[in-house]
Design goal:
With 336 residues, the chain is an alpha/beta fold. 37% of the residues lie in helices and 13% in strands. The protein has 12 helices and 12 strands. It has an 8-stranded parallel sheet. Strands 1-2 form a two-stranded antiparallel ribbon. A two-stranded antiparallel ribbon has the order 7-8. Helix 2 (40-53) runs parallel beside helix 3 (67-79) and helix 9 crosses helix 10 (264-274). The chain is globular, with a radius of gyration of 19 Å. The N and C termini lie far apart (43 Å). The protein binds adenosine-2'-5'-diphosphate. Adenosine-2'-5'-diphosphate (A2P) is lined by residues 34, 227-233, 248, 263, 265, 281-285, 288, 291-292. The site of adenosine-2'-5'-diphosphate (A2P) has 19 residues, from helix 8 and helix 11.
């Protein structure tokens, strides 16, 4: 097959190899193990199950407060020879409290230390907004009213230049963005020397982000879909269970699941993979961890793909709007 430049060829190749080629020349496994909302107490066993099940991409962040346990499990797997460092793709992020050029090095070093790694595969700016500088490694500097203190001077161009230095120094192979909007990404691109290798955003069948997705396609920026199952764990924590429809119980999804003899979660994840997204479902339940990676060797047909496309609720499908940080919308770089 010589159709190397054909979109379809690229997609099938990527699916068979279960990886996608990043702009920096590295391969990223299309299914990652999401760890947002996974407390350390549950994550150790869950990560063991995930690695045994074949996950080779782990997504974390300092704000998830679980990098240390991930580091311990990885070290065990490396020491026992079950895994080599190059077998696993590790992603972590610059937290909002460090969203300024001078803090990038300190925080990437901290993540590398906690993860017990020499280098990261991908380092993302977690959010376009920034919190005020804090002492030590505090993640949420609060004012007297317990509101998170904001840094109104966040400068993405300067932060990106500091991220580029981390690539040059070998601390990370690739760099990217998370939760940025189109104009914010454009500004970074206009000033970047090293390509934006990833945009990580909330993306699921109820929230398909068409404009942002087509912008990223035009700029060759791959997309990782976070909360690909609609993040029920987060919805529960926010006490919004009644207000936010559960995509895992959507009738169309359940009907399609029946047709293919798959679960609703598998249909939702496979739908995203067939649209060329990378997915990072979170689970700490052994059975669901295994279920969420069994996405190969079968395909959703065109008609059913179209039905899933129709489930998009546009902007009202967004779940993670950061409203849990009161007053955050006053930040000039609030993205939504
Ligand atoms: P649990 O960890 O108990 O499995 P998202 O990745 O969209 O944020 O979704 C994560 C939420 O969905 C978590 O609450 C997780 O709970 C749950 N979940 C993960 N995988 C599945 C699955 N296959 N079926 C149903 N719920 C799932």
């Amino acid at each position: 097959m010589q159709l190397v430049n054909s979109r379809r060829f690229y997609r099938i190749e990527a699916m068979e190899n279960r990886t996608i080629l990043l702009p920096n020349g590295e391969l990223i496994p299309v299914i990652g193990f999401g760890t947002w909302q996974a407390p350390e107490s549950e994550l150790q066993d869950a990560l063991e199950v995930a690695l045994e099940a074949g996950y080779r991409h782990i997504d974390t962040a300092p704000v998830y407060e679980n990098e240390k346990v991930i580091g311990n499990v990885l070290k065990k797997w490396f020491t026992s020879g079950k895994l080599k460092r190059s077998d696993v793709f590790v992603v972590t992020k610059l937290p909002p409290v460090a969203n300024r050029a001078e803090d990038v090095e300190k925080w990437i070093e901290k993540s590398l230390g906690d993860l017990q790694l020499e280098y990261l595969d991908l380092y993302l700016i977690h959010t376009p907004f920034g919190f005020a500088k804090s002492d030590g490694y505090e993640l949420y500097p609060l004012d007297d009213d317990d509101l998170v203190k904001l840094d109104y001077g966040t400068d993405h161009v300067k932060v990106w230049a500091a991220m580029e230095k981390q690539v040059e120094r070998g601390r990370t192979k690739a760099i990217g963005l998370s939760n940025f909007n189109i104009s914010q990404i454009e500004r970074v691109l206009e000033n970047a020397t090293i390509s934006v290798s990833m945009l990580q955003i909330e993306l699921h069948a109820y929230f398909q982000q068409r404009k942002l997705v087509s912008f990223c396609k035009s700029k060759n920026i791959p997309i990782t879909a976070y909360s690909p199952l609609g993040s029920r764990g987060f919805v529960k924590v926010m006490n919004k269970e009644g207000a936010v429809p559960d995509i895992l119980k959507n009738e169309t999804v359940l009907e399609i699941a029946k047709t293919y003899k798959k679960t609703a979660a598998q249909i939702l994840l496979r739908y995203l993979l067939q649209n060329n997204f990378i997915v990072i479902p979170k689970s700490t339940n052994p059975q669901r961890i295994k279920e969420n990676i069994q996405l190969f060797g079968w395909e959703i047909g065109e008609k059913d793909m179209e039905k899933l496309k129709q489930l998009d609720l546009d902007d009202s499908g967004r779940i993670v709007n950061f409203d849990f940080f009161k007053g955050l919308r006053r930040h000039p770089e609030f993205p939504f």
